[in-house]
Design brief:
This protein is of the alpha/beta class and about 350 residues long. The protein is built from twelve helices and nine strands.
Length: about 350
């Protein structure tokens, strides 16, 4: 009777095969060189023991996944999507679950990711460039070093959009620029959305003030619909449901043209920053949804988690989830994700002081 191996089972088989093959290769090399198959005086006979190949690590208990925002937002949704496919499609050993832990506010959530035991049982989704921006703006509060996280991969990048309520008097971005005493709302200071909001106000020369402290995209939209804000700046994939329901309208796309996701059909007709006459605003802030573990993760643990995360994000099952959830995905392995993260670190070291001055 044939049996199909799960992804976790395939990894165990590969690890076992490598462990078995290693001594056979050593014996074969010895024979080809004309030597004896038995160890010489400097080998096992002298010490009495041979060094066994290291066993591949895999989890033996549930993995805690930290989301530094409240449930229902983009980071929470992507985290639950990855976790769902990881468990249901057999990427983890039988009986092992991924438990989502929402831990707002943002500094608390990021700190809990950074200070957790580096044992493979705590991972999280790190918002970039928010993590490095908060570290620069408030080093006393930010008890983490962004560049020291163990990067496992990234699931998406999210360009920003300027939105207004559907019944707003502002029909175009030019109307908004001509407005006065405008109000906006966003989440914590130093968050990616807050950075995008500040950059937008600066570049467009808006007469606007910003209220900080919303717990997530749903609260931001609710405030705008109540009339507490005339506009808000949020990610293209964060308020899709409110676009579909007709509650909000996009006025300006702040990303680069290659960041226009084909899955978000409504985004195709939204004017871009460069076309509207604001080229310096195009792509100035792009949200990266980075999957990380604490610093100093043992190499065998990091390898397991990196391979598992990327296999999940590259799978047909996750692509199907993304289509159903109407969430675009841009999967990157840990090396590509690290490169993008470090680029954002360098960018924010210039941008954040400029916006704060």
């Amino acid at each position: 009777m044939s049996r199909t191996l799960t992804p976790a089972g395939r990894r165990r088989l590969v690890a076992l095969s490598a462990a078995v093959a290693l001594p056979l290769v050593l014996v074969a090399c010895s024979a080809e060189d004309g030597g004896s198959e038995t160890p010489d005086d400097g080998g096992a006979a002298a010490g009495g023991e041979t060094e066994a190949p290291a066993e591949a690590w895999e989890p033996e208990e549930d993995i805690q996944w930290i989301v530094p925002y409240s449930p229902g937002g983009g980071f929470d949704t992507y985290s639950r999507g990855v976790a769902q496919v990881m468990v249901e499609e057999g990427y983890l050993p039988d009986g092992i679950d991924v438990v989502i832990r929402n831990t707002p506010p943002l500094p608390q959530g990021i700190t809990s990711m950074f200070t957790a035991e580096p044992d493979g049982y705590t991972v999280g989704i790190l918002p970039m460039p928010a993590a490095i921006a908060q570290q620069i703006q408030d080093p006393d509060l930010a008890r983490w070093e962004t560049e020291e996280f163990t990067v496992l991969g990234s699931v998406d990048e999210n360009a920003y959009v300027v939105y207004v309520p559907a019944d707003s008097e502002f029909e175009t971005i030019e109307d908004l620029v001509a407005g006065s005493d405008l109000r906006s709302i966003t989440v914590e200071e130093g968050s990616s959305s807050a950075l995008a909001t500040a950059a937008t106000i600066e570049a467009l020369g808006l007469d606007a003030t910003v209220t900080y402290g919303a717990e997530g995209s749903s609260e931001v939209v609710a405030a705008a619909l109540r009339g507490d804000a005339e506009f808000f700046v949020y990610g293209a994939s964060d308020v899709v449901g409110f676009i579909d329901s007709g509650d909000v309208r996009p006025l300006l796309f702040l990303g680069t043209e290659d960041q226009r996701s084909e899955e978000l059909t409504w985004l195709q007709d939204v004017p871009g920053a460069a076309d509207a006459g604001y080229p310096d605003l195009e792509g100035v802030v792009t949200e990266l949804r980075l999957i990380v573990a604490p610093p100093d993760l043992p190499e065998e643990v990091a390898t397991y988690l990196r391979e598992t995360v990327f296999e999940v994000m590259s799978s047909d099952a996750f692509a199907a989830w993304a289509e159903t959830a109407e969430r675009p995905i841009v999967p990157r392995d840990w090396e590509a994700a690290t490169e993008v993260m470090l680029d954002q670190v360098d960018q924010m070291k210039v941008l954040v002081p400029e916006l704060s001055s």
